[in-house]
Amino acid sequence: MSACLYLISISPWYLLPFAWALSGTAFTGFFVVGHDAGHRSFHKNNLVEDIVGTIMFAPLIYPFEPWRIKHNHHHAHTNKLEEDTAWVPIEQEKMKNWNGVVSGLFKFFLGTPLKLFASIGHWFIWHFDLSKYTEKQKPRVIVSLLACAAFAFTVLPWLVINHGWMGLVKYWLMPWLGYHFWMSTFTVIHHTAPHIPFKPAAEWNAAKAQLSGTVHCDFPAWIEFLTHDISVHVPHHVSSKIPWYNLRKAHASLKENWGEHMCECSFNWRMLKNIFTELHVYDEKTYGYKPFDWKKEEPLFAVQRAALPNSIVRGGGNTCMGSSESCMCFLKVFCSAQCNQTRECVRHITLELVSPMLPHKNHDVWKWTHRNIQKADVPQVETIPM
User: Fold this and answer.
1) What pLDDT, on the 0 to 100 scale, is given for residue 309?
2) Could you tell me the sign of the dihedral formed by the alpha carbons of 332, 86, 369, 376, in that order?
3) Cα separation of 349 and 364, whole Å?
4) Residue 20 and residue 172: Cα distance in Å, rounded?
5) DSSP letter (8 states) at residue 84
6) Measured torsion, CA atoms of residues 239, 245, 248, 249, in degrees rounded to the nearest 10
7) Which of 2-11, 48-57, 164-173 is the least confident region?
8) Residue 133's CB: how many other CB atoms inside 10 A?
9) Angle at CA of residue 229, ends 83 and 335, nearest 5°
10) Where is pLDDT greater, at 47 or 3?
């Protein structure tokens, strides 16, 4: 991180975006160290972990203990409707209470590329409100809030005094925004896909949710290096006690023994556009998603679908579920360049074309397979260039 800040200090204005991108990614590495401390996988001594986590989170103005409490709740209830705290689809019943302004704000921030900064809202809403914590939790929460306040009222004013307001923007705000970009991008990809179900508590199964309900995504090597392999996500959900430096070994073992039940993808723009334009509202029939404008296409999404082409195959319905075409759409969106011209997916794991979102007849988990899919399976595929 120090090297990145030095790079910012010597970069001419036209290279600052690159320096900010690098420093924002390195900032995410700060978070990952604190993240392991929060999961008690950093050190044998919990006090050491609390101190390290608080120090690593302070430059992000992120209260460690509130995050730890809410994040562990997410791990305990992954993909459980009403309980999970990470990227839960919006329920139609709640939308009925929205007025025009609220509806517009949700669609603008969660139905556009701004979704890649939505962790800022999560940070603000969930981590500074003492009413969200029990009386037993509050003392530790307050300590974390005071640590963030100490950084905010010492280091940030020092930046302004010595470098002016532009110094605050240059050395802290832009890297901070870069961190939130990666935090949003990592987590939304890990927990948002056409095939991933969110189940009511009565139908929820922890093993299915942790192994088959999260997505492993391969990012460029420099990103994975600076962010300490936080993108290796499935083993982290199977056991959050695995430290970041063992995640790849754990992933290899899981893939060898349980690979047919896991989902992988490579970071690509088609996948993100599909998330922006189509995966918003909870679909009670499939336990998956449908877009905000599932009833009638709205200008905000029509413009994006036109300006960001090939984000989805739009058939008779507005959702990317329920037919071989929609599953093939998922294949294209999540497999990227690994698929050849005959659309045979060799390396990546895709949803077998059985009844969508229902348990496979031979398995008590979601059925995944290295299945080859030919052009003949999906006539429309040739209209969408790879």
Assistant:
1) 59
2) negative
3) 18
4) 9
5) -
6) -80
7) 2-11
8) 18
9) 80
10) 47
